[in-house]
Amino acid sequence: MDRRDLHRRYMGAAAAYQDHAKDCPRCTRYHPGPQCAVGTRLRESADRLQDTYLNTKGPK
Ligand SMILES: [Zn+2]
């Protein structure tokens, strides 16, 4: 997979969580983070994409 594409997806997933946390009465954008099932799922998918991105070698 193209690293820039991966970066775009990771930023998109992170933004999806931030958007959720803004509207969710339980989740917070930063610490302690996700407090509901939807937020947890969004956060995990963003973290996984970030890990994949950081472990992918290639141009920045
Ligand atoms: Zn939430």
Q: What does this protein structure show overall?
A:
With 60 residues, this protein is mainly alpha-helical. It has 2 helices and no strands. Helix 1 runs antiparallel to helix 2 (37-54). The two termini are 14 Å apart. 13% of the residues are buried. The structure holds zinc ion. Zinc ion is lined by residues 20, 24, 26-27, 36, 38-39.
The quaternary organization reads as single chain
Summarize the biggest pleated sheet. none
Show unreliable segments: none
The overall pLDDT average reads 94
Helicity, in percent? 55-70%
Number of strands: 0
Fraction in beta strands: under 5%
Radius of gyration equals 12 Å
Shape type:
elongated
Q: Tell me the distance between the termini.
A: 14 Å
Structural class: mainly alpha
- What is the element string, with H for helices and E for strands? HH
Number of helices: 2
Distinct small molecules bound, one entry per kind: zinc ion
